[in-house]
């Protein structure tokens, strides 16, 4: 029996080593490829005057669609921010998804709205639209407000797609803050690409916690003071600058962030819009659009813009972070398993041979393998047959690799866009990278395993993403002074 366990131990340990090498190799390859792509992008775009697009007759028309649910405390500034974007041919469509607060009353009053009669073709089925509003003030003629019954974020987005009148749809979380030139920068690749149709594009999402925001604009960039938001700066930097840049170049990108993305409206309608029965509707839409283009044998691309175009608040507590991450896990699994036909299918080229398998093995399976490895070492420790030299060697290699990768991501950020220009902030990020594998990653692993469990029992809820405001530290201080536990509720709701 002991010999059997030692043989099993040998097989499992070597399997773990092989899988770890594959993961490390993929991360290193993506990091190198992203660095080369980033250098190429910076050289190409450093001296471009995006304002030229403002007067160009070739610039694509854009409908900015922003779903809103119980956003009464910030909705006026959010809309003002969207209306002040630097672009010529665009409209802003705010979809009030059955808010229970005073959102609609505030919007109607602030922007002098009145209901209008409008004919539209409901190409994608949605919950009942109660009214459509336009402003009496010509200064706000780009604004359209849709008031509808609650149906969840995907349903609200579909309503915006139905009402949109432009070539492209830019989907924005209403609580996010866009830089003024965001649409100009996102629109440029659509003009440059001539051989393949660009069906979607996404930009870098940056973290606004602790930043100074005035009238919907970032006026001062600050590193989050709290550990949980600060460590997410590292996560986002690794993901966006060192992952999606490479996948964009390889044309294997499977995800455009729901916080800010741009889509070809025609293709969105052809594939049936957002799936309202999923919690990961943003990723699934991209996979479905890509699959449609491949099956139609049309040349296409999903691109990624490395410029920091959108700032959003991230969870500041483990409770809210857990809700977000297990939902992300379920969304990832929905897309992978619904479209499992893509798995190593040469018919879909990069999508089937690289993109889908990578997400399957390294985004979904890797946390499960890590969890199994932990359980395995606990079992053999109890049985009294652990290989402690192997265990500590593997643990040390994984820790050093994780810290090195994060430090490389920080260097990547500093050499490219350099948003954190205080030396103490950079030092704090370097120190945070050393703490992340010990005090943060275990929780992310737990949330991922919980997401897997919820997926297999069929749970479809979003959960409530409570927010404390962008300057979370200042807000917390005010709440302590006032002894008021109330916090601002987020736009996420049960789908």
Structural features, described:
52% of the residues lie in helices and 15% in strands. The chain has 495 residues and is of the alpha/beta class. The strands form two sheets. A ten-stranded mixed β-sheet has the order 3-4-5-2-1-6-11-8-12-7, with helices on both faces. The chain has a two-stranded antiparallel sheet with strand order 9-10. A hairpin with a 2-residue loop joins β9 (212-214) and β10 (217-220). The chain is globular, with a radius of gyration of 23 Å.
Instruction: Please tally the helical runs, counting DSSP H or I stretches of 4 or more residues.
Output: 14
State the order of secondary-structure elements, H for helix, E for strand: HEHEHEEEHEEHEEEHEHHEHHHHHH
Structural class: alpha/beta
**Average pLDDT over all residues:** 87
In summary, what is this structure?
This protein has 14 helices and twelve strands. The chain has about 500 residues and is an alpha/beta fold. It has one domain (about 1-45, about 195-495).
